[in-house]
Design a protein that fits this description.
By secondary structure, the protein is α/β, with parallel strands linked by helices. The chain has nine helices and 13 strands. Helices cover about 35% and strands about 25% of the residues. The strands form three sheets. A five-stranded mixed β-sheet has the order 3-2-1-4-8, sandwiched between helices.
């Protein structure tokens, strides 16, 4: 009989869920739009119904061990989501308690970026590495840090908020309430906002994106335009890549990882943005560290690192 765990990856826009095996196999998966407002209990019941449909699709006997959840600002120690800027379920959500009650299974949670790091460490391209960083680039910007083979949680479970380092003092307002955070510039919305500013300020520069409704433009649209040589699209990625590279140089100088992994929407444009990130990271690190840290995409297919990593929380509890 196979042992499986439920993995749930709650994002600001979409929530992925799946039935995951001990070696990271995805036996079944799906996703639904995240409902970031109202009561979390209502959204959890929708998830339960959808996951029951997944379970019905399996054609083998299995033992279900528990539910692992990756979510923004989820605290591994307390089992709560606390002050997540892109979710409106309340300042504190008893996510583990609610999931255990609805699913009648043991549950565990951690920050969604930490879940990505756990998945990459156990089953992805970070397997065998002891020191690395995961950066997730989506609705928000998150990070998960491994040092000496251990995930870094800090004193209260919230270590590793790369997205809320200050990139530009007194810069754009961020969803967290601070000004100038990396997330305000390098999240999906932040990148679109950079393009909008360039369209408004560089009025003499031709761009195919001027013909589009700015409210409907995505990072994928900007990427496609950049591939065709659109100057403002390319400048948008240059600005984002420079900011990420400069910030990562500080991390490299402090902890000297073997590799940095990038996941999510912006990372899908790696052929354009990765060279810029590496350039500015290496410009700004000590010569001792220059050109020694690898910048890599996830080794897990379809950006399922957080989903698989969330399920791995259950394997860790049962090991």
């Amino acid at each position: 009989m196979k042992k499986i765990a439920i993995g749930i990856d709650i994002g600001g826009t979409n929530t992925k869920f799946g039935l995951i095996g001990e070696a990271g196999e995805i036996y079944a998966e799906n996703s639904i739009p995240t409902q970031p407002e109202g009561k979390f209990e209502d959204f959890a019941r929708i998830l339960f119904f959808q996951i029951m449909k997944l379970r019905a699709s399996l054609d083998f006997e299995y033992q279900l061990l528990g539910v692992g959840i990756g979510a923004p600002n989820a605290n591994y120690f307390s089992g709560k989501i606390e002050y997540a800027p892109n979710l409106k379920w309340g300042q504190t959500v008893e996510i583990v308690k609610i999931i255990e009650e609805i699913f009648d299974l043991p549950a565990a949670t951690t920050n969604d970026a930490n879940a990505s790091a756990i998945g990459e460490y156990h089953f992805g391209a970070a397997k065998g590495m002891k020191d690395f960083l995961i950066i997730t680039l989506g609705t928000g910007v998150g990070s998960g840090i491994y040092v000496n083979g251990e995930l870094v949680y800090g004193a209260d479970g919230f270590a590793g908020e790369f997205g809320h380092l200050t990139a530009i003092p007194n810069g754009r307002i961020c969803g967290c309430g601070k000004n100038g955070c990396i997330e305000a510039y390098c999240s999906a919305g932040g990148v679109v906002r950079t393009l909008k500013e360039l369209l408004e300020t560089q009025t003499e520069t031709a761009s195919s994106l001027r013909n589009e409704n700015i409210n409907n433009i995505t990072t994928e649209d900007i990427y496609k335009a950049a591939l065709l040589g659109d100057k403002l699209a390319m400048a948008t990625f240059e600005i984002s890549g420079k900011m990420l590279g400069e910030a990562l140089a500080n991390y490299v100088t402090l902890l000297r990882p073997e590799a940095i992994f990038m996941l999510g929407g912006l990372a899908n444009a790696r052929d354009i943005i990765f060279p810029t990130i590496l350039e500015y990271m290496n410009i700004n690190v000590l010569p001792l560290f220059r050109n020694k840290v690898k910048l890599l995409p996830s080794g897990l297919s379809k950006n399922f690192a957080a989903l698989i990593g969330a399920a791995a929380l259950i394997w860790d509890k049962n090991s």
